[in-house]
Amino acid sequence: MEKLINILKFSEEYLKKYSFSKPRLQAEKVVAYVLKLDRISLYAYFDRDLSEDEKVQIKNFLKEMARNRMDFGKVLEKLENKNVDEITVEKENHKKENLQLLKHSVEYIEKNGIENPKLEAEYIFSHVLKTNRLTLTLDFTRKISEEEKKLIKEMIIKRARDKKPLQYILGEEEFFGYKFKVDERVLIPRPETELLVEQCIVLMSDVKTPFILDIGVGSGAISVTLGKKIPTSKVLGVDISDGALEVANQNKELNNVKNVKFIKSDVFENVSYKEFDMIVSNPPYIPEKEYKILMHEVKKYEPKLALTAEDEGLYFYKLITKKASDYLKNGGVLAFEVGYNQAQKVKNMMEDNEFENIVIVKDYHQIERIVIGKKK
């Protein structure tokens, strides 16, 4: 795959070699036309990968321009005047073929018992074709290359037959409006965790430079989002998993945050700073007996280490709550995401460890999901 920015540079240099006036403008027009993008917003997609079919189209236009010493507008006018009927028929044929391919994909996913088969298929198609899912069928007038068809087929099979989570197939998930890389080394970020982050942002809004500790970072979704949303903060994220830390650091780079640092630590083991304004954690909390009845795709693909905990799922809450006061300022905040039946137990733990002003926040399904308390 070739990045859009590299194709633009190549096209500009190519036209410059043939002494075109305003070669960059001409190059932008060619690339924008082939990719069906607005020229003004072209650079917003600078890291987009181009398919082989798109690269061939761009190179053919460049050759035609050089051969006839015509700018792009003249070449396009000539092409459209000559082939307008042929192009219309060709586009209609492509659209029919592509809609049929989408239809068969949806049927295959549905036959294999996956919920929302149309939505899942559309995400896979839009990912491969590098287009917005909401405008997917508008791009169906172009030919889907054999390479793209092969990739779509592979992804559809992984989702339908192998029950691999869509996020792992696409290699990404959105969290709080930001894009995060995910693979089988980390849990897929959940919408419920966005609620935890919302609470943390509100609680730190009056702190000039909040120091925040995130225990069990996984993909880095909590740490990175807090770093983005509270730019004056300093966020330290810890995890015991080397794989998770690697993914978290990739997401730190992807989202361009400078105020977040990740280190390997078994909870507080390697944390030396002891004046945090907040400790936040979404630790493993599923009891072993409940893990056995989880959905197949969760058990097969998501890391068990990040899901389960001993002592009826309460192990990490007890450990963190017991030691948190040693690492928090007076009045510092401890915030947890908890399992569906754990909120009251975690609240009791906080009370036993002299936390005060403890509140429980329900999620979108009215399940007690967040527990927050302050160090006396």
From TrEMBL:
One term of GO molecular function:
peptide chain release factor N(5)-glutamine methyltransferase activity
Q: Where does S-adenosyl-L-methionine bind?
A: 216-220, 239, 282
For this UniProt record, give its keywords in alphabetical order, as a comma-separated list. Answer: Methyltransferase, S-adenosyl-L-methionine, Transferase
Gene3D superfamilies on file: DNA helicase RuvA subunit, C-terminal domain (1.10.8.10), Vaccinia Virus protein VP39 (3.40.50.150)
Claim: S-adenosyl-L-methionine is one of the keywords in the record: yes
Q: Which residues form the signal peptide?
A: none
Q: Matching SUPFAM superfamilies, A to Z? A: S-adenosyl-L-methionine-dependent methyltransferases
E.C. numbers: 2.1.1.297
Source domain of life: Bacteria
EC class of the enzyme, as a word: transferase
GO biological process entries: methylation
Where is the Methyltransferase small domain positioned along the sequence?
A: 208-290
Catalysed reaction, written as an equation: L-glutaminyl-[peptide chain release factor] + S-adenosyl-L-methionine = N(5)-methyl-L-glutaminyl-[peptide chain release factor] + S-adenosyl-L-homocysteine + H(+)
Domain named Release factor glutamine methyltransferase N-terminal: which ranges?
7-67, 100-171
The record's listing under InterPro entries reads: DNA_methylase_N6_adenine_CS (IPR002052), HemK-like (IPR004556), N5-glutamine_MTase (IPR050320), PrmC_N (IPR040758), RF_methyltr_PrmC (IPR019874), SAM-dependent_MTases_sf (IPR029063), Small_mtfrase_dom (IPR007848)
Residue numbers binding substrate: 282-285
User: What is the similarity comment for this entry?
Assistant: Belongs to the protein N5-glutamine methyltransferase family. PrmC subfamily.
- Name the HAMAP family for this protein: RF_methyltr_PrmC
Q: What does this protein do?
A: Methylates the class 1 translation termination release factors RF1/PrfA and RF2/PrfB on the glutamine residue of the universally conserved GGQ motif.
- Listed name of the protein: Release factor glutamine methyltransferase
